[in-house]
Amino acid sequence: MAILQNKCWLFSAVRQVGLAGFVVLAACLGFGQTTNSCLDCHSALPDPLGVSQEKFSQDIHAQKGLTCASCHGGDATSDDPDKAMSRKAGWKGKIDRKQIPQLCGSCHSDPAYIRQFNPSLRTDQLGQYRTSVHGKRFAAGDTKVAVCTDCHSVHDLRAPSDPRSTVNPVNVANTCSRCHADASYMKGYPIPTDQFAKYSTSVHHQALAVRGDLSAPTCTTCHGNHGAAPPGVDKVQNVCSNCHAFQAQMYEKSTHKKAFDAASLPGCVVCHGNHGIGHPSDAYLGTGPEAVCMRCHTPGDRCDQARVGLQGGLSRLDEAIKGADQILRVAESSGMEVSEARLGQDQARDSLTKARVTIHSFRTDLVDQDIQAGLKIASKNLQAGKGAMVERNQRRVGLGISLIAIGIVLVGLRLYIKKIES
Amino acid sequence: MSPLRNVRSWLDQRFGWDDLIAPLRKKTVPLHRLSYWYFLGGITLFLFVIQVLTGILLLLYYRPGANEAFESVQYIMTRVQFGWLIRSIHSWSANLMIFTAFAHMFSVLFLKAYRKPRELTWVSGVLLLFLVMGFGFSGYLLPWNTLAFFATKVGTEITGQVPIIGKPMMIFLRGGEEVTGATLTRFFGFHVAVLPGIATVLLLLHLLLVQRLGISIPPKLEVQWTANPSAKREMKFFPNFLLRELMAWYVALGVLGVLAAVFPWNLGVKADPFVPAPAGIKPEWYFLFMFQTLKLIPPKVWFIDGEILGVLAFGLVGLLWILLPFFESDQPSRTKRWITGLAVFALAYVAGMSVYGHLAK
Fold this sequence. Notes:
Strand content of chain B: under 5%
CATH superfamily of the domain at 32-220 and 234-281 in chain B: Cytochrome Bc1 Complex, Chain C
Structural class of chain B: mainly alpha
Helix content of chain A: 55-70%
Number of strands of chain B: 4
Distance between the termini of chain B: 69 Å
CATH class of the domain at 32-220 and 234-281 in chain B: Mainly Alpha
Oligomer: heterodimer
Strand order of the largest sheet of chain B: 1-2
């Protein structure tokens, strides 16, 4: 009986071990099925066929659960290469460049499909692409122009919000420059290839790439992304006004608007340039190398006289602010409490900025209003600084008198002590 | 009879003025090459009086509250006649008072003036020093500027490290979990009511003890003068020493005037609890040696949290410091050398750590 009981126990133990082994094997097989079997081989292949597991795991599509088969067709669950890459299973092999926009659009133009991953993601990219210069040329058979994967990358495609994405605002200019700054690649297209070089020197690039201000414009901000196209001469101010709203309002009502429109000149670009926009300076109004007015106007004419008035006003206010700043700085370093006047200086600076914006109306009376308001504030702050310096000097005189008085008392006390102790 | 004598006679008839000041007339001050150190206590007292007077004047315009404190101090400094002078003197005098209180303590320590029967004078003096630092800590927040706000935040956080009672103490000090307007109101209360009340009682006790026990003589001299009473040299407290003390007070007043006029106390920028703390924030110089020590202690010492260990160690050292006279010998000829060694080490440690803390980033 005891032997029988022992046999039963042994049988039970073997059964338990067998069951556990089966579960582990099934789990392993199951795990194999959920992975992307294509990568088993392709991760070992050299470029252009090679795609490592690490690279593909960074791809937003892989993170959302899509596999190679989602684009290339075939059966990604099969370990048998013949089955995995069987035409019967819909395997397409390398995607023909001509098919790329349509293939991407098959999902990205389907709102119902995209909604399950990201309801806020737009689904008009393909439609926009077809309206772009890239899309139009592509439709006409030019396969050199950009398609989706040229900008967004492939197999390691990241969300635009990812700083490592090729279409993150900080990287967009570099991405565009890969083609647009390549003179040999752009040969045959009637556009320059110095845009990126110019943009790299611009105030916009400085703000975006150096200061990290993501609201600063890059290529796509002005040209659009999927619907990329040059803004067109008559539309430039509409592009700039998206950010520079007040300047645009002033310009719209100005005499220059009519004159530029009549001469088919591209608004803002005439004075500020396009890709290489520098930091605007009051010297634009001058007659030196940076001057822009005198490129068109004749010395001594009515506009030239107005220009002199405008530049003089801005210089006066700038000098007044600097003068007040200097005296307030000295007063503050002497320990005087001038924080109120220092705060007032910000108002004066605001007036100067406002005057510089109002310049776009090209009306001396409007600019002068801002200049006068700023000068009034700067003058008040200058007086506060001077007052503080006068008070500082008075304090020092008072201190001198007090120290003399203290010295006299000390001498008196010393003499008195000497007297009573003698 | 002169008018002054008339007044004195009038006072004497009513509450025995002559009897009251008789001890002052009998009081003497030992005269030796280190007698100058005796002035430090009086200078500290003088600066305390300056603090009280300028503090009362500041109270006329200061408004405690997160929305008003900074503006009211700004008003005092820019609009009130001589407001800048009163505020600057109050701030400079506070710092000088803490410095002279420390110097007074170390002079007492090196001259061994804490020995029997002056143990209670020492105890009350050390407690007064702690109170003075409390005045500094509570007063620093009152202008409600950025540096003060974050220094208070760090300071009260350190209090919160004390095991068991730390957290409730921190909440009590702050008037809540965070440093807010409630903390400011609370610190104002401590600064102008609680601490002055305790300080006045302790100060009177300290002065009474000094008066009753007289001024101590360094042990070596005490032994010499006991063996040879003819070698003893003294000076009358009134008027000889007091007049000299008065000279020291005038010098202190001159120094205060120079500091206040040439280096007016900065107001800084109004505190904003929502901005990050400025980089490298440090407490006032008199807390620097403790702050720097806490920074240098590793996060874990064996299994104890480094900061908690530091706070507990400072608490224990503070307690032992108060009790220091009770470890000293009764005999002037057999004073403990290790206490002098400890005093030298303490002075070097406080000075060294303060300089290190000041220079450290």
